[in-house]
C-alpha cells in the first residue's frame, strides 16, 4: 500500500511540473482553460490512468474494428523498447478516447505535463465533417524578427560620421556606446550595449544647450550606469566588429525536421525507422519545397553533407520571403540496420529546434515522444477526407510546444483545416519560422543566449579598447600592432568575435553549446555518440553556470563542428 501511495504521489508531482515562465496559459491556445474546473485534457488523463477493469464499452458495434486496431497498438506499445531512449512513456491508451469527436486528436498531451497544445482538446468537440471553415488571409501572416533592432547600427551609423566609446561599469560590466549626430534632422541617435540587451534612443539637439557627454547620454538610456568616463574608440576596423556583435543573432537561414508517422506508430523507434514514402507524403513534401540532390548543392545546406553523401542523396529545400529553409526529412536521411535509435537520423532531427510531423491514419502524436534537449515545438499535419469534398485534399493542423515557449502566430483557423496548397504552404512556413524564433525565448535557450552575449560583449569591449590604445601609440602594446598583419583575413576582421558569431548562427548545435560541462578525463572521441548529439538520458533542466575562469579557448570549443553554408 505504501508503494502504491508513493507512486501516486510521484505521478501527481509529475503532472504539476512546468518549466515556469508562461505556466501553460496561452492566449492563442489555452483560452479559458485555466478557469475551467474540468477539461477534456483532464478527462483524457483520467481515462489513461483508469485500470483496464474499470473501462466500460460504450462504443457502438460499428467501432469494433477500430477498437481492435487500437488494442493492437496498445500491445505494441507495451512490447519491448529501449528504456534509456526516452522518458517514461505514458500509460496505454484506452478505447474510451475514441469518444472525443469520433476521431483521435492529432496530438495527445504528455502525462508528465510541460507542453501546451493548439488547438486545445476542447475545441476538437466542435470538429465535424460538416463544420464550416475559412483560412486566414496570407497577407496577415507576419514573420517574426529575432532581433528587430540588430541592424540599426548598420543602417543609421555606418553611413554617417559617428563615435563609439567603451567602459567597464562596476555593476553592469562592459559597455559599448555609439553616438551619431544626424544634422539634417537635428537629432542625436544613441545605442548603449549591455550584457542583458542593447538600448536605442533618439534625442532632439534642441533639448540641450550643449552636446551631452558620453556619460550623460548613457545615463539617459539607463539610469543604472555609474561610470565616470568612457574611453574613445580609435580603431579603424571598429565598425566591422560592432556590426558583427549587433547582428550575431540575425540569420536568413533555417532548418527544420520532418517526421513521418504511419498508422499505429507511437514510439520514437517506429517513427524514425520509416524508409518508404507514400504518394500522399511525397505530395505533402512538394507543398513545402522542392526535392534537391545534395551532391554539389550550393545553397544553404542546413548541416547536410553535399560532398560525400554521408547524410543521404536528397533533401527538401525552399526559399521563402528572402529566407532559405532546409528540411531534415527523416525518410531521406541514412538508415542504419540494427540500430533501433537511428542515430544517423536523430543527430540531425534531434538537434533541430522545431520539427514537423506528417501523420497517416488516426494515430495521435505524443508531445514528448521524441527525446531531445533541443526540440521545443512540433507542428503536426494530418490529411483528412471530408464527405462533401471528396475531390479536394484537406489538411488538418495542430501545434504543441513546451510550456515556456511563448505563443506565436499566425493563429490557426477554426477549425484548423486547409484545402488550398498555397495557403497551407504560406501558413506552415511562417509558423515554423516564428516557432523557432519564439523557442529562443524559452528558459534553456535564453540562458544560453545571455551567457553568450555577455562573453561576446566582453570580448568586443576588450578588443576595441586594446586596439584603440595601440592606434594611439601605447608603447606597451606595440607587439600587438605588429602581430595584426600576421593574422588571417577572417581572424583580422573579428577574430574571437567571428568564432562566436558562427557558434550562434549555426543551428546544428553541439551538446556542449547547451552549457553542459565537458568531462576532462574523457576525450571527445570517447564520449557516447548520443550524448554528443544532444540525446543523452539526462532530463532537460536549468543550464549549469559556466565559471568565470572558463577561458576563451573553452568557449570557442563550444561552437558546432559543422559549418553550415
TrEMBL record:
User: Which keywords belong to this entry?
Assistant: GTPase activation
Domain (Rap-GAP) spans 242-460
Q: Which InterPro entries match?
A: GoLoco_motif, Rap/Ran-GAP_sf, Rap/Ran_GAP_dom, Rap1_Ran_GAP
Q: Which GO terms describe its cellular component?
A: cytoplasm
For biological process, the GO terms are:
regulation of small GTPase mediated signal transduction
State the residue spans of region: Disordered: 519-565
Among SUPFAM superfamilies, the record links this protein to: Rap/Ran-GAP (SSF111347)
List, as start-end ranges, the regions of compositional bias called Basic and acidic residues: 528-538
- Keyword Methyltransferase in the entry? The reply is no
Show the GO MF annotations.
Answer: GTPase activator activity
What name does this protein carry? Rap1 GTPase-activating protein 2
Instruction: Specify the taxonomic lineage.
Output: Eukaryota, Metazoa, Chordata, Craniata, Vertebrata
Amino acid at each position: 500500500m505504501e508503494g502504491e501511495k508513493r507512486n501516486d504521489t510521484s505521478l501527481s508531482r509529475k503532472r504539476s511540473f512546468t518549466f515556469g515562465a508562461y505556466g501553460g496559459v496561452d492566449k492563442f491556445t489555452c483560452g479559458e482553460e485555466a478557469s475551467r474546473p474540468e477539461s477534456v485534457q483532464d478527462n483524457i488523463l483520467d481515462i489513461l490512468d483508469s485500470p483496464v477493469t474499470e473501462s466500460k464499452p460504450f462504443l457502438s458495434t460499428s467501432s469494433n474494428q477500430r477498437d481492435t486496431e487500437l488494442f493492437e497498438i496498445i500491445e505494441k506499445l507495451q512490447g519491448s523498447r529501449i528504456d534509456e531512449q526516452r522518458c517514461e512513456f505514458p500509460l496505454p491508451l484506452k478505447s474510451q478516447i475514441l469518444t472525443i469527436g469520433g476521431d483521435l486528436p492529432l496530438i495527445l498531451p504528455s502525462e508528465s505535463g510541460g507542453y501546451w497544445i493548439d488547438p486545445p482538446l476542447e475545441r476538437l468537440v466542435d470538429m465535424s465533417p460538416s463544420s464550416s471553415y475559412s483560412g486566414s488571409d496570407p497577407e496577415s501572416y507576419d514573420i517574426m524578427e529575432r532581433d528587430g533592432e540588430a541592424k540599426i547600427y548598420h543602417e543609421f551609423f555606418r553611413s554617417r560620421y559617428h563615435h563609439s566609446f567603451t567602459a567597464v561599469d562596476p555593476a553592469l560590466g562592459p559597455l559599448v556606446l555609439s553616438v551619431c549626430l544626424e544634422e539634417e534632422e537635428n537629432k542625436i541617435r544613441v545605442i548603449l550595449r549591455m550584457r542583458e540587451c542593447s538600448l536605442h534612443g533618439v534625442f532632439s539637439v534642441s533639448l540641450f544647450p550643449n552636446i551631452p557627454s558620453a556619460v550623460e547620454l548613457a545615463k539617459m538610456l539607463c539610469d543604472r550606469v555609474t561610470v565616470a568616463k568612457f574611453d574613445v574608440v580609435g580603431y579603424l576596423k571598429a565598425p566591422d566588429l560592432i556590426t558583427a556583435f549587433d547582428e550575431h543573432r540575425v540569420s536568413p537561414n533555417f532548418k527544420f525536421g520532418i517526421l513521418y508517422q504511419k498508422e499505429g506508430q507511437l514510439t520514437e523507434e517506429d517513427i524514425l525507422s520509416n524508409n518508404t514514402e507514400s504518394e500522399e507524403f511525397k505530395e505533402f513534401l512538394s507543398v513545402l519545397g522542392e526535392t534537391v540532390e545534395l551532391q554539389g548543392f550550393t545553397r544553404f545546406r542546413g548541416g547536410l553533407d553535399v560532398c560525400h553523401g554521408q547524410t543521404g542523396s536528397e533533401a527538401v529545400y525552399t526559399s521563402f520571403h528572402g529566407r532559405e529553409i532546409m528540411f531534415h526529412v527523416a525518410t531521406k536521411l541514412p538508415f542504419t540496420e540494427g540500430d533501433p535509435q537511428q542515430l544517423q537520423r536523430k543527430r540531425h532531427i534531434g538537434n533541430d529546434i522545431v520539427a514537423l510531423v506528417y501523420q497517416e491514419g488516426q494515430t495521435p502524436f505524443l508531445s514528448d515522444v521524441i527525446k531531445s534537449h533541443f526540440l521545443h515545438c512540433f507542428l503536426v499535419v494530418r490529411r483528412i477526407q471530408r464527405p462533401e469534398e471528396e475531390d479536394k485534399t484537406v489538411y488538418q493542423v495542430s501545434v504543441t510546444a513546451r510550456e515556456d515557449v511563448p505563443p506565436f502566430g499566425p493563429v490557426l483557423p477554426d477549425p484548423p483545416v486547409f484545402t488550398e496548397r498555397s495557403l497551407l504552404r504560406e501558413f506552415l512556413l511562417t509558423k515554423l519560422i516564428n516557432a523557432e524564433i519564439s523557442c529562443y525565448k524559452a528558459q534553456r535557450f535564453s540562458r544560453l543566449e545571455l551567457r553568450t552575449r555577455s562573453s561576446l560583449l566582453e570580448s568586443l569591449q576588450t578588443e576595441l579598447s586594446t586596439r584603440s590604445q595601440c592606434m594611439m601609440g601605447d608603447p606597451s602594446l606595440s607587439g600587438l600592432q605588429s602581430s595584426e598583419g600576421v593574422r588571417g583575413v577572417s581572424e583580422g576582421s573579428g577574430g574571437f568575435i567571428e568564432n562566436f558569431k558562427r557558434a550562434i548562427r549555426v543551428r546544428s548545435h553541439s551538446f556542449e553549446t547547451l552549457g553542459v560541462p565537458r568531462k576532462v578525463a574523457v576525450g571527445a572521441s570517447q564520449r557516447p555518440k548520443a550524448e554528443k548529439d544532444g540525446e543523452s538520458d539526462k532530463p532537460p533542466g536549468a543550464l549549469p553556470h559556466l565559471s568565470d575562469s572558463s577561458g576563451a579557448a573553452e568557449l570557442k570549443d563550444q561552437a558546432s563542428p559543422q559549418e553550415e553554408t
